[in-house]
Design brief:
- This protein is an alpha+beta fold.
- Helix content is 36%, strand content 23%.
- The protein contains twelve helices and 16 strands.
- Strands 1, 2, 3, 4, 5, 6, 14, 15 and 16 form a nine-stranded mixed beta sheet that branches. Strands 7, 9, 10, 12 and 13 form a five-stranded antiparallel beta sheet that branches. Strands 8-11 form a two-stranded antiparallel sheet.
- β3, α3 and β4 form a beta-alpha-beta unit.
- α1 runs antiparallel to α3.
- It is globular, with a radius of gyration of 23 Å.
- The protein starts with 8 loop residues before the first helix and ends with a helix.
- Its cofactor is Zn(2+).
- Pfam families: M20_dimer (PF07687), Peptidase_M20 (PF01546).
Length: 412
């Protein structure tokens, strides 16, 4: 058995704790949405850490931050990383852990003076969490963006991506210059918290991701008639919220009949109009997020949800319309990378669990450019996108060492 490399865990811990304080509000939650004040401060801190480590720093046109080791601009690279932007009210490990582990791996390669055949890059992708749609940085690298998509990207407050980038001295059209040729990236590896309860339940420290779910996200509206809550008989109402309530009750049946054991569907946001206690709801706008690991099942589910909403609307005298906010195809992780992760973990005395990812990640996009793989570490209580988000330090150390040795296998 080859001797395994080890990260400087004390330094990694300090980085995790320092970054966790940037963008933190009084309620202990993080607010580092893409291009926000908190995100900007985190970016400046990360760039300083890369320079202090003596690594090459590069910021591409999409504002992705790269740390580079063994870089000569000619050889292809092994890339690792994740994101440091957050959802509003976030915890401190989602994305950030993968970026900091990547940085620590490059520092160890440099300190140990290892001779590597390939360059290694650690990257912090821009706007993974979706202020302007999600996966912006990885989509830019993979050449999936167009001038029209960049121009039309807006956040929930109506601010355009172009406005926000220009205000920070960035040129939004440079996003298109971030595109990489497939031959320039040999492999991509992302370490991430699981954001679910499986690893903790199984008592396993490492997950090897076999595939990442695809999803479709709709913004749907049911329109009825707003009317007096006291004078309108129940059988004469066109109550938009009652239509939504009936639809919500149909979700388990639709998943059972048209989905798989891995299918999930969520109504995560609801707005009722006009929104008064004494008025029958005239319209209701809501989100629908549906995920599965198989594209054909996702398409069946989309048809089934559309039919169910149309039938409910027809029966209740409502109008139904919807807009597709995003569609992401599921992807399979590269078998060779999965094997490399298994080998690295077993050499450290850890038996990993092969599992799917129920959350979307930049790896999903990077898999369209190069072979890609993911390492999961447990999420305590399955909590994420919350200040309760936590992974035990001993699992973080194991995960970081698995990432370090996997990257070494790939790069040397």
């Amino acid at each position: 058995m080859a001797k395994s490399l080890k990260v400087n865990f004390e330094r990694l811990q300090a980085d995790v704790e320092t970054l966790a304080r940037i963008g933190r509000h009084e309620n202990y939650s993080l607010y580092r949405m893409a291009f926000s004040e908190g995100d900007q401060a985190a970016r400046e801190w990360l760039q300083k850490r890369i320079q202090e480590a003596g690594l090459d720093l590069y910021v591409d046109g999409a504002a992705n931050i790269h740390a580079r080791f063994n870089w000569d601009g000619q050889r292809p690279s092994i890339m690792t990383g994740s994101h440091i932007d957050t959802v509003p009210g976030a915890g401190h490990l989602d994305g950030a852990l993968g970026v900091l582990v990547g940085l620590e791996c490059l520092r160890r390669f440099k300190e140990l003076g290892l001779s590597l055949r390939h360059a290694v890059e650690a990257i912090a992708f821009t706007d993974e969490e979706g202020r302007f749609g999600g996966m912006l940085g990885s989509q830019a690298i993979c050449g999936q963006l167009t001038p029209e998509a960049i121009y039309n990207a807006r956040d929930l407050d109506g601010m355009s991506l172009s406005q926000v980038m220009t205000a920070q001295g960035l040129n939004p059209t440079d996003i298109l210059r971030a595109r990489r040729k497939p031959e320039s990236v040999l492999a991509f590896l992302e370490l991430h918290i699981e954001q679910g309860p499986v690893l903790e339940r199984e008592g396993v420290s490492i997950g090897v991701v076999e595939g990442i779910v695809g999803l479709f996200k709709w913004e749907a509206t049911l329109k009825g008639t707003a009317n007096h809550a006291g004078t309108t008989p129940m059988d004469m109402r066109q109550d938009a919220f009652q239509g939504l309530a009936e639809f919500a009750g149909e979700i388990p049946r639709i998943l059972e009949e048209n989905g798989s054991a891995r299918s999930v569907a969520t109504i995560g946001r609801v707005e009722i109009f006009p929104g008064a206690a004494n008025v029958v709801p005239g319209s209701v706008k809501f989100s629908l997020d549906v995920r599965d690991t198989e594209g054909v099942i996702l398409r069946d589910l989309a048809d089934a949800f559309r039919r169910a909403l149309s039938a409910i609307a027809r029966r209740r005298g409502l109008m139904f319309e919807f807009e597709v906010l995003s569609e992401i195809e599921p992807v399979k992780c590269d078998p060779g990378l999965m094997e490399a992760i298994f080998d690295a973990a077993r050499n450290l005395g850890v038996e990993p669990l092969q599992m799917p990812s129920g959350a979307a990640h930049d790896t999903q996009i990077m898999a369209t450019l190069t072979r890609a793989g993911m390492i999961f570490v447990p999420s305590q209580g399955g909590r994420s996108h919350s200040p309760a988000e936590w992974t035990p330090w001993e699992d973080i150390e194991i995960g970081a060492n698995v990432a370090l040795n996997t990257l070494y296998q790939l790069a040397h």
